[in-house]
TrEMBL record, chain A:
<dbReference type="InterPro" id="IPR029058">
    <property type="entry name" value="AB_hydrolase_fold"/>
</dbReference>
<keyword id="KW-0963">Cytoplasm</keyword>
<dbReference type="GO" id="GO:0004414">
    <property type="term" value="F:homoserine O-acetyltransferase activity"/>
</dbReference>
<comment type="subunit">
    <text>Homodimer.</text>
</comment>
<feature type="binding site">
    <location>
        <position position="358"/>
    </location>
    <ligand>
        <name>substrate</name>
    </ligand>
</feature>
<comment type="similarity">
    <text>Belongs to the AB hydrolase superfamily. MetX family.</text>
</comment>
<feature type="domain" description="AB hydrolase-1">
    <location>
        <begin position="52"/>
        <end position="362"/>
    </location>
</feature>
<dbReference type="InterPro" id="IPR000073">
    <property type="entry name" value="AB_hydrolase_1"/>
</dbReference>
<dbReference type="GO" id="GO:0009086">
    <property type="term" value="P:methionine biosynthetic process"/>
</dbReference>
<comment type="function">
    <text>Transfers an acetyl group from acetyl-CoA to L-homoserine, forming acetyl-L-homoserine.</text>
</comment>
<protein>
    <recommendedName>
        <fullName>Homoserine O-acetyltransferase</fullName>
        <ecNumber>2.3.1.31</ecNumber>
    </recommendedName>
</protein>
<dbReference type="GO" id="GO:0005737">
    <property type="term" value="C:cytoplasm"/>
</dbReference>
<feature type="binding site">
    <location>
        <position position="228"/>
    </location>
    <ligand>
        <name>substrate</name>
    </ligand>
</feature>
<feature type="active site">
    <location>
        <position position="357"/>
    </location>
</feature>
<feature type="active site" description="Nucleophile">
    <location>
        <position position="158"/>
    </location>
</feature>
<dbReference type="InterPro" id="IPR008220">
    <property type="entry name" value="HAT_MetX-like"/>
</dbReference>
<keyword id="KW-0012">Acyltransferase</keyword>
Length: 385, 223
């Protein structure tokens, strides 16, 4: 269960590094940003020739604790323990796994809840708007600092998958293998629409205080919870909601003719909203959803997506899930076609699942089989076996 | 939508490979023998990756696959083979010109909607095309039609006419005529018997058209 006492940045487990002190991070918005802190976790050991590094990229509300036993805030397991760990698909006895909290995040990396050195106050809405490319450039600065030239693999789902694709576009020679999972090369109009609902919910909460809630000693908990509830529905599917909850009532024999949470699905969503508020910063939610909205790899090539990958030697494995209506297989196929057109080495697999977008986080044997085969095949080609 | 799937093994009714010793279906072996080591290969309708895996292991090719069935794609990628889900009729146009040394279409041409266009695509994408198909000029097919008045059905074509994904049948001579019409060079050709082994009956003679159960061609463009 959630432990709601906020941890200060210093008290968080894992690594933190200050980057951009001399060479600042040039953001897409034109701002030269820095110095900034990047919080990250590593698992396993880097080999002598630094060829076994795997960068795992987290999704919108994920964090760097991908494979920890106990998450410092939620007390739960790391978010991708099914995939990452000793003897797992991304085997930490074989690979050096790195996962950073994205810039703009709220678990140790510089984001809107951290202190703006110029004012001594939390950044709030003075924090510059960041993009997926900005997140990736910040990660690249960390990888530079680690002296790693080429990452063996960059892997992630959802927004993590966007970072994977951005890595492949921006640093094609530094990514040997890439697995963009349940993702797209651009955020769809429908996804932008849902994000906007979430942001409006946060901003409509009077406790948001125009973004200055930290200074005011408040928290837009209701707005952020509504945002999470809405988003959470999009991560599931109608069949899975029906299977889990149907029209079952919550601890009662009959409907109450009220607006209490009569239905189990209501109770479940309220719980999702409430527990999210304990671990996530509302302004970070605004910034990171915006970064996803702005993502479109094809835009700088006038829509010719293949151009983004021209000449790439990276091997790609694109994975989608049949019931994912956030990031559909159709989007994945468009990406795969573009990669084909650019003569890239690409696999594209749809996994049958009724669990919706969240399937990439869950126990899906076919998905695990495919990812495992891809990583092993790439490891063989990289001489890591 | 065209069927490109692992149905070919069942259709051919021939023995499938035993995984550890590197042996593959006899007709696939004949295709593999045509491929030069270290080349770039696109296997369209690659099924479970039997041929592609073999070519990668024994000839170190840079191989890619296109497969209609999700299950086939999954099994291929799980073996580390780069394969994507797709369809010969619809998805070949994405590939750039001359992207591969060989474009292989095994036992699938007859299941495409537009075989002529597919053939042209193979030779746009690949410098050479390797194509195999069931021969409707085989004596047994002729026998079925002539004496039974029924559409041919045998262990290699076990599906009834109303269910078969195979919609464009041809004989060896029909195919040769199409190649001529399309101005393609037949670099190599052979016919196979019912177990998929090569039959020594000249390349595409009348005799071959009569006794060949399947046909296998390697084609290239003029000029």
């Amino acid at each position: 269960m959630s432990i709601s006492a906020p941890l200060s940045r210093r008290a968080l487990p894992g690594h933190q590094i200050v980057l951009g002190e001399t060479d600042k991070l040039r953001l897409d918005s034109g701002v030269d940003f820095g110095p900034f802190t990047l919080a990250y976790q590593t698992y396993g050991a880097l080999n002598a020739n630094k060829s076994n590094a795997v960068l795992v990229c987290h999704a919108l509300t994920g964090d760097q604790y991908v494979a920890d036993d106990v998450h410092p805030i939620t007390g739960k397991e790391g978010w991708w323990r099914a995939i990452v760990g000793p003897g797992k698909i991304i085997d930490t006895e074989k690979y050096f796994v790195i996962c950073t909290n994205v810039i703009g995040g709220c678990l140790g990396s510089t984001g809107p809840k951290e202190t703006n050195p110029e004012t001594g106050k939390p950044w709030g809405l003075d924090f510059p708007v960041i993009t997926i490319a900005d997140m990736v450039r910040a990660q690249a600065m960390l990888i530079d600092h680690m002296g790693i030239d080429t990452l063996f693999a960059v892997i992630g789902g959802s927004m993590g998958g966007m970072q994977v694709l951005e890595w492949c576009k921006s640093f094609p020679d530094r990514v040997f293998a890439a697995a963009p999972i349940a993702t797209s090369y651009r955020h769809s109009a429908q996804n932008i629409a849902f994000h906007e609902v979430g942001r409006q919910a946060v901003m409509a909460d009077p406790d948001w205080c125009g973004g200055n809630y930290l200074l005011e000693g408040k928290k837009p908990a209701r707005g952020l919870a509504v945002a999470r509830m809405t988003a959470h529905i999009t991560y599931l599917s109608e069949p899975v909601l029906h299977r889990k909850f149907g029209r079952k009532l919550q601890n009662r024999g009959a409907i109450t003719y009220s607006f209490d949470h009569d239905f189990q699905v209501e109770s479940y969503l309220r719980h999702q909203g409430k527990s999210f508020v304990d671990r996530f910063d509302a302004n970070s939610y605004l910034y990171i959803t915006r970064a996803m909205d702005y993502f479109d790899l094809s835009v700088e090539f006038d829509g010719r997506l293949a151009e983004a990958f021209r000449g790439s030697n990276t091997r790609f494995c694109i994975i989608s899930f049949s019931s994912d209506w956030c990031f559909t297989t159709a989007e994945s196929r468009r990406l795969a076609h573009a990669l084909n057109a650019a003569s890239c080495n690409v696999s594209c697999v749809e996994i049958e699942s009724d669990k919706g977008h969240d399937a990439f986080l869950l126990d899906e044997p076919d998905f695990h089989m495919v990812l495992s085969g891809f990583i092993q095949g790439a490891a063989e080609a990289r001489g890591l076996n | 939508m065209t069927q490109i799937s692992s149905q070919t093994a069942a259709q051919n009714g021939t023995a499938t490979a035993t995984a550890p010793s590197d042996r593959i279906r006899v007709d696939l072996q004949l295709i593999a023998d045509m491929v030069e080591p270290g080349t770039r290969v696109l296997d369209i309708g690659c099924g479970d990756g039997e041929l592609l895996g073999y070519l990668k292991r024994t000839k170190k090719v840079d191989g890619r696959g296109l497969e209609l069935s999700n299950e086939g794609v999954r099994n291929c990628v799980a073996q580390g083979l780069p394969v994507m889900q797709g369809d010969a009729d619809r998805d070949l146009h994405d590939y750039p010109n001359d992207a591969f040394d060989y474009a292989i279409l095994s036992q699938t041409l007859q299941a495409t909607n537009r075989p002529r266009e597919v053939l042209a695509e193979l030779l746009r994408i690949g410098r050479k095309a390797i194509v195999s198909f069931p021969n409707f000029g085989h004596w047994r097919a002729r026998f079925d039609l002539m004496f039974h008045g029924r559409m041919p059905q045998n262990p290699n074509l076990p599906i009834m006419w109303y269910e078969t994904p195979n919609i464009h049948f041809c004989t060896v001579r029909d195919f040769v005529a199409l190649c001529k019409d399309m101005d393609l060079i037949i670099e190599r050709s052979m016919v196979l018997n019912e177990s998929g082994s090569k039959v020594s009956l000249g390349s595409h003679s009348n005799l071959a058209n009569f006794f060949g159960n399947q046909a296998l061609f390697m084609l290239s463009k003029k000029g």
